[in-house]
Amino acid sequence: MSAQTDPADLPGVTKEHTPAPDAARLPGPRGGQAHKDGHGGGSSEGKVLNVFSHGVLVIWGLLVTMPLLWAVVSSFKDDSEIFGSPWGLPSVLHFENWSRAWDKANMGQYFLNSLIVVGGSLIGTMLLGSMAAYVLARFDFPGNRFLYFLFVGGMGFPVILALVPLFFVMKNMALLDTYHGLILVYIAYSLPFTVFFLSGFFRTLPTSVAEAALIDGASHTRTFFQVMLPMAKPGLISVGIFNFLGQWNQYLLPTVLNVGEPDKKMLTQGLVALAVSQGYKGDWSGLFAGLTIAMLPVLAAYIIFQRQVVAGLTAGALK
Amino acid sequence: MKHGKYRFIAGFLVLPLAIYAIFVISPFVQAIYYSLTDWTGLSPDMKMVGFDNYARLFQDEVFWSAVGNSVTLLLLLPVVTLSLGLFFAFMLNVGGRRRKKAVIGGVRGSGAYKILYFFPQVLSVPIVALLFQFAYNPESGALNAFFDAIGLDGVQPDWLGDPQIALWCVMAAMVWANVGFYVVLFSAGMSSIPKDFYEAALLDGANRFNTFFRITLPLLWDTVQTGWIYMGILALDVSAFAFVQIMSVGPGGPDYSTEVLPLYVYQKTFRDGQAGYATAIGVSLLIVTLVFSAVVMRLGRRERLEF
């Protein structure tokens, strides 16, 4: 971070030794040039700003990482260390916290539940969402606009308002506390954004390829699955990542619709239940281990697929 | 061919539409109806009570404290989160030392910062909420232990237990969780602004603060507005519910100091067995949401800048 390493800054350094006012340097062509290259009046400002911005950025970086690191470190401590020296390092690595959380506190089971439900709903969302989006984007039929806005309108309504009646809809269909019930609801509440995003995407794809396939005798269905879907791959990946994270991190829907059997909890729900029960039991180290178990796989996946995750999540906001 | 086309359309739409209608549309419509009844949510029988539920809202102090807290979140959360996001994104993209030929540039390692800042975005709300709950713990939490360590052992707030600051504590966690997303989003927008705009402005003697307000912000306005609506909906709905329900003592906080509308709907339904009344609260939440979106659209409407 020292100023000397960058040769581009040398003129600015010289300027500090002979502090000439800017105006004196400006009239000559060099002065103008220097200004344009940023070595003129802005240089010392730039340097101060550079230190300042690095300082601020590092502070926020610490604010983001400290709580996460702190949770990981605490998951290796025993309870007395967690209370006695919250900021210290563990004297011995207590790996048994992790196995206790995984087995006794059911984190392994919750993890599996989340995998099953999110796996099913992700496939369903992508398939049904892209089918609806394709038809709405590329076919002209009466009621097309109405259906489109019906789907897209779902993005703006507060979910909590629908929950009470939804609970009874599910109850009447005997779907409460079941994997397939949750899968159906996750799909339903993911459709608005998926249809919105993918229909925009299908509209941008060239018509000629689809027409060629139809002329060659392919049915509409075959054209969709063998021609259009492969062409829409970038859009599918973006919206797939968006849906995966949204469904994996879903908390409100299972909190209301999935409360019957303790073994069937989703990971997010299980974590909160764990926090409540371990809080009473005083097993704080087990709780931190559970938290870390829930946290690390997602963070690892994010670091590996970092580019795609960022593109997928921001694509929606940028349209 | 024509026949085949309509059969295809129907075939592709029937399943998504059925699922959507059953689990999203029908509950919303039913909610409006239930808000006019005295339904408990437990028994099948109910009777129409007209607008009684809505009249009752005016007498309900907890409701008004929830409205106050929700509106506070709605007004402050987007401002704080988006300002920090813009600030960091500008630092990352424009705050760096000027190198030869480059009029403006990002700080060194801006890519690493972006990866780091995005971390909280991929974590679920319960994880973030629990982390902060531990940090705020008055006896053994990281925050008070930190105050101890730097000699501020006289200052040991109750954090979530103190009605004066509980809501701010929850809000801090929500800001923490969301800033990274906007840093990345705004960075993407900023990097697509042509460099010669800055070149021209700097040549005319503008400093960086001027370039931010005259060039960067106007050209990013569309993205900022989208972010504003996202954050607003977050402050009113799912996210606010989860943060407050998990973090705050009670839940709802001491003296309902962190009670928010979505949580109150949930409590009235599943804790108090007043589903009819709860849906009336939900409808008022819907109204707040719609008013908010309309206001943002209206205020944000300005000439679209093409470049």
UniProtKB/TrEMBL annotation, chain A:
Q: Which SUPFAM superfamilies match?
A: MetI-like
Keywords associated with the record: Cell membrane, Membrane, Transmembrane, Transmembrane helix, Transport
- Identify the stretch(es) annotated as Disordered: 1-42
Q: Specify whether Membrane is a keyword of the entry.
A: yes
Q: Which GO terms describe its cellular component?
A: plasma membrane
Q: How does it sit in the membrane?
A: Multi-pass membrane protein
Q: Where is the ABC transmembrane type-1 domain?
A: 111-305
Q: Carries keyword Transmembrane?
A: yes
PROSITE patterns, per database record: ABC_TM1
Q: Matching Gene3D superfamilies, A to Z?
A: MetI-like
**Mind telling me which residue stretches traverse the membrane in this protein?**
51-73, 110-134, 146-169, 181-202, 284-305
Q: Alphabetically, which GO biological process terms does the record hold? A: transmembrane transport
Going by the entry's taxonomy, the superkingdom of the source organism is recorded as Bacteria
UniProt subcellular location: Cell membrane
Which family does the UniProt entry place this protein in?
Belongs to the binding-protein-dependent transport system permease family.
Report the protein name in the record: Carbohydrate ABC transporter permease
Q: What species is given as this protein's source? A: Streptomyces platensis
From TrEMBL, chain B:
Its cellular-component GO annotations read:
plasma membrane
Q: Which gene does this sequence derive from?
A: lacF_4
This chain belongs to the protein called: Lactose transport system permease protein LacF
Stored PROSITE patterns: ABC_TM1 (PS50928)
Membrane topology reported for the UniProt record: Multi-pass membrane protein
Q: Give one Pfam family, short name only.
A: BPD_transp_1
Q: Per the UniProt record, which residue ranges are transmembrane?
A: 12-36, 73-94, 115-136, 165-185, 228-247, 275-297
One GO biological process term:
transmembrane transport
InterPro entries (UniProt xref) = ABC_transporter_permease (IPR051393), MetI-like (IPR000515), MetI-like_sf (IPR035906)
